[in-house]
Amino acid sequence: SAKDEIEEITDGADKQLKIENQLAEMRTQWKSREFQFVEWKDRGVFILKATPMVMEELEEAQMNLQTVLTMRHVAPFRNVAQELLGSLSETSDTLESWVKVQMMWCGLESVFTGGDIAKQLPKEAKKFAKVDKDWAKIMTKASECRNVVECCADELLQNTLPTMYSELEKCQKSLEGYLEQKQKAFPRFYFVSNAKLLTILSQGSDPLAMNEYYENVFDAIQYVEHDKKDKTIIHKIHGDGGVGHEVVPFITPVKAVGNIEDWLTSLLQTMRLTMKDHARSCSAGVLDVQNDLSKLRPLVDKNIAQFALLAIQIMWTYDTQTALEQCRTKKNAMKENSQRQLQVLSEMSSWCLQDLGTKVNRKKIETLVTVHVHQRDIAQELAQLVRSKKVHDANDFDWLKQARFYWRPNAADEVNNEGATVVSITDVDFNYQYEYLGSKERLVITPLTDKCYITLAQALGMYFGGAPAGPAGTGKTETTKDLGNTLGIFVVVTNCTDQMKYTDCAKIFKGLCQGGLWGCFDEFNRITLPVLSVVAQQVLAIQNAKKQGVEFFQFPGDPQNVAIQPACAFFITMNPGYAGRQELPENLKALFRGVAMMVPDFQIIKKVKMCSVGYSDFDLLSTKFFSLYATCKEQLSNQRHYDWG
Q: What is the DSSP letter of 338?
């Protein structure tokens, strides 16, 4: 009917008007939409700002246009809409590559304009200078035009962006090769992010600039002390801890001249030589103390925390080993040894009630007590076992399972041939690695810690990795780090995420192999399965190289051979059964020895902590405190703010 026809026509006209208005509004919007610019580092060169918003708007506009084009009443405006869509999608594509080029340019600009790196990569610096010139031209033109669509429609811009991108990519590749070369020369650079490494290298000609970054490549060096007259001579290392922190003079001054990676290598070598010298002198001091206990305090005060502890451990090992060897012929040897260890403990515990001056010094003494409480317990336990005829000599497993410390004057290690500090756990001997560890708190050793040490030592003895697994807060990572501290080695902890690529893992593995360090990969089963299967190949290649005792080996995916130091080792810690955690592939599981970690014995920890602050009745007090806290834990509600765990 006529009425229906009229309604249809007016309805159609209504919808067409809507489409016409929408298109007009869009055209007006994009005619006036402008880029925002910001000046880059006072160079007079502009860069685009707030581009993600523009890109979002472009995407939205394109989607709206595509919706309009599917409407029935678009016919009269189809050409207009298609033209607008074409221009916006071209704008969007150009902007995308523009932002890519801008990101690369911003990343490389500081590297190639000034600084030491430009001098060492002259070819790339020249390439970059050309791109830099073109970039300045484009940006000046764009900042005058400002309109989004017009800027992106510029033919010169569209033609130069792809070539600029490929040139910058070449510069980036050369730069990565250059960084890899530096990392190979000083493997600890593998653990520094590329941005930080570039900063370190670009300031390479000024040795003082490195002082900000020592903590990234050494375990406990905060900064080093340069000669006042000649900054290229380094005399001392400084530990952390503020007032009263440890200052260790080098055995010979380090010359900070030439490439930074070369003098850092010689600094590392000198640090290890210096630490070895400390180990030699602290083990010589042990002999004096054995004849006269009053010399214990001077020995502890003379040595830095790390070697005061080593001296106590060497002394305990020597005393107990000698007593065990004599226990068949000398009836009271073990009992006397147990009493002597108690004397040493009471002596050190009494110091905790005196004014020890600085926090660092107090931490040092408390750590000595913490470790020696365990050593006294072992001496006591062994004395009882000898009395009940369960242990007969120094070859019994009850003694061999302990971490035992020896200074062997006729042996040699990686540092030089003049003696070696050896740490034995079960039948595996480890050479002490002489990393400066500063004044660190050490874990209280509970039976769980002992079992973990034994399993990890056995794993390393068979060239496997270690895999402590258990609930959160049971000390998986901490025990691994503590074992590393016991052996004087730098433990690099990596927190794994599902974002990790196999190349990231390769970088860390290469650093650990070439630097002879330990790597602890926390929450390892967060890494995705495809990456884990590549990691299995990487770990296998390293373990095979260790078994064969070679100096260089073929690392998967690396064209050049990679050096390997036998001290390197890997540990992975896992929380079982959480969402987003993988089961490890079988071929990877086979390369690590598992250790089940449980809730530690809080009573032992309380006992040791009380002893280390000077209580003499610590055995009885710890039992009472343990009962008190255990009751509190059971009685209180388990809401979050009542954390009596």
A: H
